[in-house]
Design a protein that fits this description.
This protein has 114 residues and is mostly helical. The protein contains 4 helices and no strands. It has helices at 6-20, 24-38, 44-71, 84-104. The radius of gyration is 36 Å and the shape is elongated.
Length: 114
């Protein structure tokens, strides 16, 4: 068996002496504060927090809506805009590469294991 810790005994004695000197009003307030601290939290905390979350989301959305268009423009600074036929040729080149890649990919038949 282990011996009790002497510092623990001294702390208990000090607590007992201090609590004996408390008046009834202070003891009552301390008991009520302890009960309130041990009581489980209610769901009202979550209900109070959602307006703050909605406000933060709105501010972030507005900031992104203002910041992104200034960063991503329709054209790079100092570059001439692309003509519609140039854009179409770029799209067709991308599509051709995609279809060539798909043609080379293996295809699973309905009866084969995957």
């Amino acid at each position: 068996m282990s011996r009790p810790d002497p510092t623990l005994d001294r702390a208990r004695d000090l607590f007992d002496r201090a609590s004996d000197r408390l008046d009834q009003g202070t003891a009552f307030r301390l008991r009520r504060a302890r009960e309130a601290a041990l009581r489980p939290q209610t769901a009202s905390t979550g209900r109070r927090m959602w307006p703050a979350g909605a406000l933060a989301a709105s501010v972030m959305t507005l900031a992104l809506a203002w910041w992104i268009p200034s960063r991503i423009g329709p054209e790079a600074p100092g570059a001439a805009p692309l003509a519609s036929d140039e854009i179409e040729s770029l799209v067709m080149a991308e599509d051709a590469e995609l279809y060539a890649w798909l043609a080379e990919a293996p295809v699973a038949s309905p009866g084969e294991p995957q």
